[in-house]
Give the backbone structure.
Amino acid sequence: MTSPAVMTVHGPVVGTLDEGINCFLGIPYADAARFAVARSPKPWDQPLQATRFGPGPAQFPMPWLPKNLDLSEDCLTLNVWTPRDAPEATLPVLVWIFGGGFEGGLSGTDMFAGHALARAGEVVVVTINYRVGALGFASLKSLGGPYGEASNLGLTDVVLALKWVRANIGSFGGDPGLVTVAGGSAGGFLAGALPATPSADGLYQRLALFSGGASRLIPADRADEIGASIAGHVAGGNLIDAPLSELFEAQRRVIATDIGARNGVRPQAFGVVLDDGDANGVLKMHPLDAYRTPAAQEIDVWAAANADEISLFRTFDPNFDPVTEDELIGHRNEWGVDHETATAIVSPYTQESASMGEVRERLLTDWIYRLPAARLVEAHTAGGGRGYLSLIGRADGKPAAHGCETSGIFGRQPENETGPERHRAAEITRAVIDFVRTGNPGWHSGVDEARTFGDSGINAGETYRSILSRWAGVARP
């Protein structure tokens, strides 16, 4: 059987036919020098064998990564799954941005394989790599010299990938005017920043943010502090020539591991740098403000969060649980509030929970994920846009932890999932397909109309309204 072949603007690519779907893996969409904005790759004349994933982004070794994984600074590739014999430039397109705390992750994994979704929804699926950790998100412009472009590099990688989609996806059967950008966790925060990113204007029509939002924003001065501190842990401050091991060790020394410290008003972590005060910044305004503008009204937005997001992080952090309520209130600087306000915030969580660990888990689930989702949809609909909100609840009694929705997003049915979990996943898959194809995931716009997946005992609209009320007046970056 003849292998599928497509001509891109950079050269011809040859893929494989797998499970009845045309697969093109590891296509270069950009080249990048260290700490520089990526550029279009050099064109090629001979057919590129796009038959295996490209290397994942260079990153600090993580215990959950497969062993012997191919990682590289030369990682800016993407993958395309498209139905066989797809008519040219007619199918809706889903572009997926992986998560990993801005420090890790990759697109080249079976978890994000697009076969099932492409088959079930007649959708073209694209997954992209972007630079992570210090290589993608260290803010170094204030150091000058060779670091003059080093701000939000991972976000500019995403934009360049979207430009590749605009220029090439028609040849794969996709409609370049019908693009949904979706992301999970860090990928959701990156997707959430796109309306505030002028270079991304016109490259997408819909956004689906899973456990992400117009948040995880690093104030510019904090980002500069983090970048300078990382440089201070590298011999001679020379980040350009430093071995990756030394760069990652410097990063490890500076970036917080506690999930609360990583997501405060001044995070000790990587994220989207709020560089709108720089004339050459990547952002033009705070992303949440962008959703209120007339320019964003035609963008369909779906924001989703899970009922038990932080249960995943609590499991892996032996120091997560505070001993007393006063100890938890002592985290108030992360929320940017005084002692009295912090006490008022913590009190209802204490009344609803059986332990202080559970109090902190529920509080951070709201602070980091559910509050930003609700505020984003509230802002977008107030500005005249269509904003859909959902809450992913438990299934079969299991916590709806961070990332539990991934199998549903990609239409997968893992063998280790129970019947109720599979049913929840199937409902999510249907909503994803509907949103990608029509701009409506299957329910009405607005916070009050929020949809629950899984546990039907949760009224999502009431839950989100309660969270908005509980945190009213508290700024969430």
Notes: The radius of gyration is 21 Å. The CA atoms of residues 214 and 288 lie 5 Å apart. The domain at 5-319+356-470 is CATH 3.40.50.1820 (Rossmann fold).
